[in-house]
Amino acid sequence: MDCLADWPEPIVRVQSLSDSGDTIVPSRYIKPPADRPCFESLPCEVNIPVVDLGDPDAASTVSKACRDWGFFQAVNHGVCRELMNSAREVWREFFHLPMETKQAYSNSPKTYEGYGSRLGIEKGAILDWGDYYYLHFSPPCLKSQAKWPALPVFLRETVEEYGKQLTKMSERVMELLSLGLGLDRGRLQRGFGGEEVGVCMRVNYYPTCPQPDLTLGLSSHSDPGGITVLLPDDKVKGLQIRHGGGWVTVQPLSDSFIVNVGDQIQVLSNAIYRSVEHRVVVNSATERLSMAFFYNPRSDLLLGPMPELVSQDRPAMYQPMTFDQYRLYIRKQGPRGKSHVESLKAI
Ligand code: OGA
Ligand code: NI
Question: Structural domain boundaries of the chain?
Fold first, then answer.
């Protein structure tokens, strides 16, 4: 694992490129034409399904959304609105601190924990137009508040409470996903290793970009883990989801979260639920901030399709693998559509 010891090239903060006022995007960030965003005539009427998490029927709406779209917007989710706003606020303040203050938290590819500007360690890779901060909530042995920013002053306590409330919401979504498979409500949680789940967060900061039609804030990928609960920017759109052969731009409802299932849920559900590719487009007018909360299985557990979902008619679609092994691909190669989960196919 030595190759993960450091980045292959010196790290450049995208925020510094943006702040330089240069009107040209450096070639390292220019995507091949097929991957560039297209801004014309995106059908705005289509939007991902909305689920009221308090609805008695929530399991069936969640289940349908995760089969058809891999994504839904959650309302009535139990997370306090003031907390959603203060979490956005402390992170915006953090990214606006002087560069020297942020550099003290620079991360390495070994754990990704801290302030970062790239995913993957492939030398010469085309990079994404975004910086981020990555941190752990669980398991307790990985959680270290000392690695969370000390400034702004309320950040640590806000993030702590945010982690608690989002964990609760994720547990609820796990129950709904289990019920939606016709299993008992605790089944997926047990499949994840019970109490020993991995919980972490990546706060994404997408500075303004002089040539947004040439690059992406985050390249197309499916999330490698369990479930992702995204708090989108309250003013700026940017998340696009692959659906029906094209890209759909999500129109976030206010005070809602965007929930999606990751590759491990696709594996455990034997492909009944699908992790879906998504990406982020940037713009020249306004920066964008989003918080991606990841609720993952215990990382040293061999995970394969749950036996209840395997039959002669529907054989196991994936070979078992631990999340630690799986994540290593992504940590080395960075975002690559759905190629990682595809490579797990049991022929
Ligand atoms: C992610 C992600 C989307 C966004 O962090 O995995 O897909 O809108 N983020 O920032
Ligand atoms: Ni994602």
Answer: 14-344
Residue with CA closest to ligand 1 atom 9: 292
Nearest 10 degrees: Cα torsion 213, 253, 92, 225: -80
User: Among 131, 134, 219, 230, which residue has the most ligand 1 atoms within 8 Å of its CB, making it the best to mutate?
Assistant: 230
Rounded to the nearest 10°, the torsion over CA 20, 215, 10, 137 is 100
What would the pLDDT profile of 34-65 be if each residue is shown by its tens digit? 999 987 655 566 789 999 999 999 999 999 99
Ligand 1 atom with the smallest distance to the CA of 204 is 10
Predicted TM-score of the model (pTM):
0.96
3-class DSSP assignment, residue 174: helix
Domain 14-344 homologous superfamily, CATH: B-lactam Antibiotic, Isopenicillin N Synthase; Chain (2.60.120.330)
- CB within 5 A of ion ligand 2: which residues? 223
Tens digits of per-residue pLDDT, 72-110? 999 999 999 999 999 999 999 999 999 999 999 999 999
